[in-house]
Amino acid sequence: MMKNRLYRLIISLGLLPLAFVQSCNYLDVVPPEQADLDDSMRDADAVLRFLYACYGEIPYLPRIDYLCDTDERVEPQILNSFGQVIAYNQLNSSTVWTGNDETWKGTYRAIGYVNLFRQQLTDSEPLGVTPEMKAEYLAECKFIVAYMHFRVLEQYGPCPVIDWFIPTDTPKEEIPGRSHFDYVVDFICRYLDEAAAELPATRIADEWSRATSTMCHALKSRVLLLAASDLWNGGFPYKDWKNVNFETPGYGLELVSKTKDVTKWETALAAADSAINFATTTGKIRLMTIDDIPTRASTLKDLYIPGKENDKDFQKHVQLMSFLCNSLPSEGNEEYILGFRWNNNIQGAALSYIPRSVIQQNGAWVGGYSLCAPTLYTMEHFYTDKGTIPGYDAEWYDKDEWLQSAEVAGRPDITKLCVGREPRFYAWLGFDGGDYLSMLVNGQPLTLNMKSSSAQGYSPNANRNYSVTGFLGKKWVEPELKYTSNNGASGSNVNYLVPYIRLAELYLNRAECHAELGHVDEALADLNVIRNRAGVPDLTKEMVEKSGLELIDWVRNERFIELWGEGQRRWDLRRWKTAPQQLKAGAREGLNVEEKYDPTFEEFNVRTKISQPFQWDDRMYLYPVYIDELYSNPQMVQAPGY
Fold first, then answer.
1. Whole-model pTM over 0.90
2. Do 235 and 576 meet the contact criterion of CB atoms below 8 Å apart?
3. Cα separation values, 299 from 215, 494, 596, Å
4. What is the pLDDT of residues 15-58, one digit of tens each?
5. Residue 423: inside a domain, yes or no?
6. Could you tell me if residue 396 is inside a domain?
7. Which of 99, 172, 265, 315 lies most in the core, judged by the most C-beta atoms within 10 Å?
8. d(C-alpha 597, C-alpha 362), whole Å
């Protein structure tokens, strides 16, 4: 049964066309003709169409194939993607970039639309809508409004709270400005609590697009984790940033807290604990396990994994992690709490991950774009098969040996860095000499040749379609994808559920809270739930002590691995205030890809800084608001540094 899912809907709106909500600034919602509004509340069917339209207004979600603004991965500079604009510190208040402007403007347009629905439903008695139905619909709206405020809060910081419908003739002086960060957090959490009290914990299959109380608890955990983290818990670098004339009730002109409050971690811990307990009991959410691998996996061959050829348990965990983001709830994957529907696999994110030059069809090479290039930081921070971080294990290879040949029989191009690693490494990452999927080429694996310009390497004929680092990702590529000599790509096309919150994150949230509060045993217990599911041995106190790292470093590294490529890293680095180190100029490295075509093994396997204008400036903690919004709302202040 498909339940607890919120997908981005494409809905036929009937009497509610999208032109209904055109806007000229972020709070405008142009009212339709009164007859249309009357029709929208005529009966239960009309109300439900209007409600679904509210879901359809959920704004732009950054594409997972363009998340190149962190230390996870990079892309060729020629792409000029939104992620690169962020990473190069090129965002400004006078240039509209879709990924930036649409989140602010689109979100507030959508909030206005939802608030219009709330107003109309509250003031109407539609035929066939019972009091219980009305209460549930209004609760769904509160969830949507809370979610959309959080999207803005995460990206722009303190933001206007809009919990009512604002007509277009409202004087500009009455439009609210930014509220204090903690005030916005309290508002979001209050709405989530109120929504959870009226919403079901699960949904039947034909209601799988709608909010649940399980989602409310999960999102509240993420909100309070953000509020407890260093950036917003007394650590915001621009402490004098404040409003000029708009006051937040109880906070005056202030926008950020200036002192650390440890009780925020206790509050976040309580929320994470509640979210896990609710999700795993009432919500019937559970981590995906080996027993949940889809039956279509039975057609797959085992991947070639050096040293693990006969280790069936290891192979099963690789397969499990390969299907984690490539399977549906109807197939047994009930880990997703909140997700979004997106493009199908072949035409969506997967093409940026899939290697180029997979197979020849009618004399021409076909394949993907090879754009997803994991950094050396990524390759070096997934665990070894012993559950340690390379570089922090005296029993593993010395760092100066990592890019030497592992001398694997028949696979001389595989380096020591890529031998003896954990299942997620082989499920989600591709490397020279290794296999990319097990059926990609006429039912056989593609053995990557990242050095050859006529294969998957840097080529004069592929000025933008190549891996900048010499590595590839495959987290979003369905494991049974197959290209044939006489046809295009084929597969199950199931990769259209992009996770926004899944159960693993909640365990990581709770582990982080425990670590910050000094609860060592509890933090290790939560980490080991995630490690064990992935086929990684337990983390022990002794391992932490021998590594020289703090427990919080292990928590953050586990989060980096488990949520790799899912869009959370950009926010994690900011809330931890580690972005200045991780994202600074010269920090991103790969192999020596771009120096020459067809390099030798020795020429290729050289640690190389990515030659792109990456930089960090503290203003990059927040995105700027487009300048037109400042003109349309005299209460607004711009983010610091813009």
1. yes
2. no
3. 34, 16, 40
4. 222 222 222 343 444 334 344 666 889 999 999 999 999 988 77
5. yes
6. yes
7. 265
8. 26
Please state, in angstroms and rounded to a whole number, the distance separating the CA atoms of residues 590 and 569. Answer: 19
HSE-CB at 427 with a 13 A cutoff on CA atoms is: 27
- Burial bucket for residue 169 (CB in 10 Å: 0-12, 13-18, 19+): exposed
Buried residues in 289-326 as b, exposed as e (16+ CB within 10 A): eeebbbebbeebebbbbbebeeeeebbbbbbbbbbbbb
- How much of the chain is helix, strand and coil, in % rounded to 5? 40, 10, 50
349 within domain boundaries: yes
Mapping DSSP onto H, E and C, the string for 291-322 reads: HHCCHHHHHCCCCCCCCCCCCHHHHHHHHHHH
**Phi first, then psi: what are they for 484, rounded to 5°?**
-120, 160
Which pair of tokens denotes residue 422? 């954990």
> Token match 């983390």: residue?
539
Structure tokens that stand for 298 in this block: 């039975």
d(CA 402, CA 406): 9
From the centroid of its chain, how far is CA 121? 33
* pLDDT for position 64: 61
3-class secondary structure, 384: strand
Residue 198's nearest CA partner among 184, 185, 210 is 210
Amino acid letter at 639?
A: A
What's the total number of domains in the chain? 1
Residue whose tokens read 């860095």: 417
Range of the domain at 462: 290-323+343-495
- The low-confidence residues of the chain, meaning pLDDT below 70, are 1-38, 59-66, 98-102, 341-349, 492-497
Residue at 13 is within a domain? no
H helix runs in 58-106, sequence order: 82-87, 98-101
